[in-house]
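Continuing the batch. This is chain 6 of the set; chains 1 through 5 are on the previous pages. Same settings as before, nothing changed between runs. Recording input and output for traceability.
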Amino acid sequence: MGTMLFLTLLFLLIINVPIAVALGLSVVAVFMIEGNIPLLVVIQKMFNGTDSFPLMAIPFFLLAGKLMETGGISARLIHFANTIVGNLPGGLAIVAVIGCTFFAAISGSSAATTAAVGGILIPHMVKKGYDIRFSSALHAAGGTIGVMIPPSVPMVLYGVAASTSINDLFIAGIGPGILVAISLIIYSIWVSKKHGWGGGRKYSAGEIWKAFKDAILAILMPVIILGGIYGGIFTSTEAAVVAVVYGLVVGLFVYKEIKWKDLGGIFTSSASLTAAIMLIIATANSFGFLLTRENIPQEIAQFMLGITDSLFITLLLINVFLLIMGTFMETAVIIILLTPILLPIILALGVDPVLFGVIIVVNSAIGMLTPPVGINLLVAGKISGLPNTAIERAVIPFLIIMIVDLMLITYVPEISMFLVNLSK
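Output for chain 6:
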């Protein structure tokens, strides 16, 4: 039955059936062939998969990110960063990475980060002489920080799937997010010096202070959200609601860049994205039920552990497997579907499930840069007007950098776990 399940899923994916529908149909097909399980169980498992309080954080973080993007917060963060480092070689490239890192601490979404920062900076970078392919690839890569720096929607998904502390996952994502940001900045400076990009005017202390005051409410938002979570004032789910209220008040009444007529579109867009993610979670849960029933995760774990007892090689094999899956599977699917399969292997090796959560999220982030499903490439291409093939070539150096970062995160656990251990 396990073989039939995977073959059915593979066939549906080949004929281009949406992943959420393919997961559900493959389960229904196996149930109908087997005949001894009522189809009502599929619906029950789908409902059980979404009947989780922590999952409520997802629609609120998505809505908060949309409010930040529309409400002028991202523009003010970018302007403030530009007054500080915009005059350096590759200054706008540095601003792009810093902007992505700040916005990541608000939105929890990779695509939203790419869209919010890239929509402002890609045209500006091109106007200042930066190569359009480099600018687009940089924002696609910088957007991946959106799922590493807390709050992170994929980490919420993993926390639910692996029954692991979401707060610990959020803390563990800080180090890897900073590592990737620093790596992208170093490469951007090197490339910019090589091509003579950047070096704009230097801002005065008064201009920097004015930009800081203008951006202070935007800067305070991640401080309030993360400070509230780690200070024990509210849970990650409650923090998502706080982020929405804060973003709505600031965008609507303080910056006044959100109009009442805009709210319908903002809510509709957020609800649509939430529905897509939740449908994947629901059908993946019924798929996972069949996997567990057939003992497939345990069999895969025994097979992989039978190949080698080396922790180094097993982690390398898992990373290669996840990188391949990331080329054609969405982040939510990778986490919800593969976590039950891979977690027994990780636990058998003695790896902390929080560290594995970071590893699987970073892998899925890299998948956002690889065709054909690379969502960040699609977003950056839409902003710049470039075909995906042009951005795919330009993003290769960033992919290499991020894979090196992934290896460091995998084999140097302190990058992720130092702050987690410090907080306990």
